[in-house]
Amino acid sequence: MAKSRSTFVCQACGGAHNRWNGRCEACGAWNTIVEEAASAPVAKGSSISIRGGRTVPLEGLGGPIDEAPRLQCGISEFDRVTGGGFVRGSAVLLGGEPGIGKSTLLIQAAAALGRSGHRIVYISGEEATAQIRMRAERLGLSDAPVELGAETNIEDILTTLSTGPVPRLVVIDSIQTMWTSAVESAPGTVTQVRASAQALIRFAKTSGSAVILVGHVTKDGQIAGPRVVEHMVDAVLSFEGEQGHAFRILRAQKNRFGATDEIGVFSMTGRGLEDVANPSALFLSSRDVAAPGVAVFAGMEGTRPILVEIQALVAPSSLGTPRRAVVGWDSNRLSMVLAVLEAHAGLRLGGHDVYLNVAGGLRIQEPAADIAVAAALVSSFANSVLPQDSVFFGEVSLSGSVRPVAHAGLRMKEATRLGFSRAIGPSGSPGSSDKSESGISLNGLTSLDSLVADIAARGVRAGRPQAAA
Question: Which of 88, 215, 329, 389 has its CA 20 to 30 A from that of 55?
Fold first, then answer.
């Protein structure tokens, strides 16, 4: 009888090891390696039999293209991120921190679809049905025809879903709690998560139901479990936000049926999550216009222009190594902008602490925020208040020049709609030359030193109380 073998698998990245280690060599995580039973290897010299196979029909690139039918849940921001609604037979992985509002968002979407006449099934592996009913009653959704279930065994769940009409939407909360008897390992391990997700995705493809898998998030903000699950599903959504702010951001990290850079903005209220139709007005609602170090960035999130406030504080440091703290932006990008300001603009920031914050908890990923960050840094360093009617956008190169960015016209139109009359950005950006459409004038920049000279020429070097007066 062949001796059963075992392997050691990292629960953070899914890397396999021959023996147990305290630290995973693949991802560097500590105390995440667990022993699991390995499948029997193929004998040396053996080959896979093709007698039981079938011929797969092959087609060419040319031919009719059928648009995938969409299932809109009625929540406009949710439908925007998914690309216009859920696609039949698709699998979506939704991740977020504990308590951020994932279950609230999904129960609202399930209730809206249930009221539209569709069969919706909500399976919870973490909560009892009574807890879900309490949440639905608090949200005013107790009358919605949503079928609830509290189960963690995949075979029982698939058998239940196969009885009766095919459900249009199935919510699994969460995938880390599911287990299948086909795998000999504990629930929550990499092998169980992978096998459970594969069984649910196979059900979605064969039945035509849209399946949403809820995933836990690690301390680094990544969805827990093997990364292969993210490759198996059709879309990966991230639900972000901070406990101190009332709004949440739904971001698409992967989407086979839509754009991957769209975001949806929600506001957490006593009646659940509500759509935010104008995120720019929300982010700029409490802007301090009379303080130095504050700049308004005209950014793009997918097809939506968003104006957000960037705050910077440059203060003398008594430490040997000054601090660099960043919230909502890439810290490596900030180091690059500081190096360009010192090398090409003559600012001596090596002995100052630098703090950068994107107001409202929004995380910016596009490089077009370089000019807005540089303007906020120079404004705080020179104690000079930036003009209240100006927005900033543009990318900074290592040579100190300002490079054009895309969608300049949409950025300027959004700024005009919110009362701004001037945009400071790179000259020659596509869509920025037509003032009649945007209704705003563009002060073109070619180099970063001209921006620094313009802010310094304003000469407002008074203290903060005088500037506010």
Answer: 88
Residues in the chain: 469
Alpha carbons 316 and 10: distance in angstroms, whole number: 44
pLDDT, greater one: 15 or 338: 338
The number of angstroms, rounded, from the C-alpha of 310 to the middle of its chain's C-alpha atoms is 19
Q: What H or E segment, with its residue span, contains residue 443?
A: strand 441-445
pLDDT tens for 455-467 read 887 754 444 333 3
Q: Which residue has the tokens 């698409």?
A: 252
93 bridge partner residues: 213, 236
Nearest Cα to 169, choosing from 247, 72, 284, 278?
Answer: 72
Rounded to whole angstroms, what are the CA distances from 159 to 124, 162, 199? 16, 5, 12
Instruction: Give the CATH number of domain 70-277; options: 3.40.190.10, 3.40.50.300, 3.40.50.1820, 3.40.50.720.
Output: 3.40.50.300
Could you give the CA distance from residue 267 to residue 249 in angstroms, rounded to a whole number? 9
Identify the bridge partners of residue 445 per DSSP, sorted by sequence position: 426
pLDDT at 251 over 50: yes
Strand partners, 251: 238, 263
Task: Give 280's Cβ-side CA count (13 Å radius).
Answer: 21
Determine the Cα–Cα distance for residues 183 and 198; give it in Å rounded to an integer.
12
Query: For residues 426 and 411, what is the distance between their CA atoms, to the nearest angstrom?
Result: 13
Evaluate whether 19 touches 47 at the Cβ level (below 8 Å): no
The answer on pLDDT for 246 being more than 80 is no
The angle at the Cα of 467, spanning 462 to 469, to the nearest 5 degrees, equals 130
Nearest to 172 by CA among 114, 119, 213: 213
The rounded distance, in Å, linking the Cα atoms of 165 and 161 is 8
Average pLDDT score, the chain: 85
- Residue 468's pLDDT band, with cuts at 50, 70 and 90, is very low
Label each residue of 58-83 as H, E or C: CCCCCCCCCCCCEECCCCHHHHHHHC
- All residues at 6 or more sequence positions from 187 whose CB lies less than 8 Å from its CB, including other chains: 152, 176, 177, 178, 179
Instruction: Using CA atoms of 198, 202, 208, 213 in order, give the dihedral in degrees to the nearest 10.
Output: -10
Structure tokens that stand for 257 in this block: 């049926």
Residue 3 per-residue DSSP state: P
CATH of segment(s) 282-468? 3.30.230.10
